[in-house]
Each structure stands twice: as structure tokens, then as C-alpha cells.
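Lab notebook, bench 4. We co-purified these components, and the gel suggests they stay together. Before we commit to crystallization screens, I want a quick structural picture of the whole thing.
Request: model the full complex, all chains together.
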Amino acid sequence: NAGVTQTPKFQVLKTGQSMTLQCAQDMNHNSMYWYRQDPGMGLRLIYYSASEGTTDKGEVPNGYNVSRLNKREFSLRLESAAPSQTSVYFCASLGGLNYNEQFFGPGTRLTVL
Amino acid sequence: QKEVEQDPGPLSVPEGAIVSLNCTYSNSAFQYFMWYRQYSRKGPELLMYTYSSGNKEDGRFTAQVDKSSKYISLFIRDSQPSDSATYLCAAFTGGGNKLTFGTGTQLKVEL
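Here is the predicted assembly.
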């Protein structure tokens, strides 16, 4: 997963706690994405950012907020975690001449008790 | 209805078989089509990328896009146990828009 880093790799939260998942890319890509992956559900888009300073809702945005801090960084925040947010979270970036450069981070495994 | 539909499998084939993985999509604005491979407990990695209709070949892998029928295919020739993974198709309109995935097909290539 060259070029996209995610922290933390694992996290356990109690219901109601908050946390921020961090993502950074060093490929100068404009577009960045946050997905969650659950068994049988595939990758579901939470939020995405087409460029620095812009964010848009995806398929499942409820309970999440995002910040595109600069071109490199795109963070995902859970304000009040719920057990339904137990999942694996992936950050991705997309760019290149014809959008042919696409990379995913290694994922964050989140458990909400 | 999801914009990109994919049979989740699982699909089990013997080593050396030709594998065919397929997706359909509903959004006519999609211009870019991708296949990703995801090993267990890893992030997806881009395997094949195609712009508009046509075929693209890379080693044992061939991606096909038929925009008239909104059909995306990935063929794997001479399949190997190391090809065992989940394969996800994805589509994209371009610009600052969202990248939409199918649910993934789990493939197992057996010795």
C-alpha cells in the first residue's frame, strides 16, 4: 500500500467515545476517500474529497465527519461511537494523468463495545 | 439498486483453470473501470484499469468493458493458488467524483 498511511491500525472504543482516524498520502493526489468494509457489504463510501478544502457525503455518512486538512491529509472523526460502527476503515487516494493511480491504505480495524 | 453489482461468490476453481469474474453497472456516466485484488486482512490493490469500452491485457489478466451492455469482466488465465483473494470491480465518472465499488467476489484456487 505504497504512499497511503493510516493510523491507528487497531482501536477498541466504548460506546459514546470519540476518535479520529488519520490518513495521509504523499503522491500529490487531489482525490481522497474513506470507506468502511463489512462482511458481505463490500466497500461502502463514507465521505470523499475531490480537492483540498472540499468534502462530499458518500453512501453511509451518518455518524461521521471528515476534514481535508491539506492536500496530503484527510481525517475521519467518530463523534460518538456506536457498535454499528465496528468495521474496517480504509482510506484511499486517486490521481494521475487519467486517474490511473489509485492506492489504498492498510486499514484501521475498529471495534466499538 | 446499487450502481455497481457483483456476485459475491464464493468461487472455487482448480489450479490452471480460466476464471471469469463479472460486474454490471447502471450509471451511464461511468468512464473508468477498475479491478482490485484484496488479500485477507489487507487493503485492496489496483489490478487492472480500463478507460471506456474495450479490452486490456496484462500477463494472465484480461479486463473487458462493454459499455453498450454495462458489463465489466475480468479473466484470469492459468489460475494459481496465489490468485486466491477477493476481487472487487469499481467504476468512476472522472473528475472529482466518487469511486463506486461492487461487493467483491471471493475466489479460491485449489491445488
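Chain B touches chain A at residues 6, 8, 32, 34, 36, 41-46, 49, 51, 88, 92, 94-104 (CB under 8 Å). Worth comparing against the SEC data before the next meeting. The longest strand of chain B covers residues 85-92.
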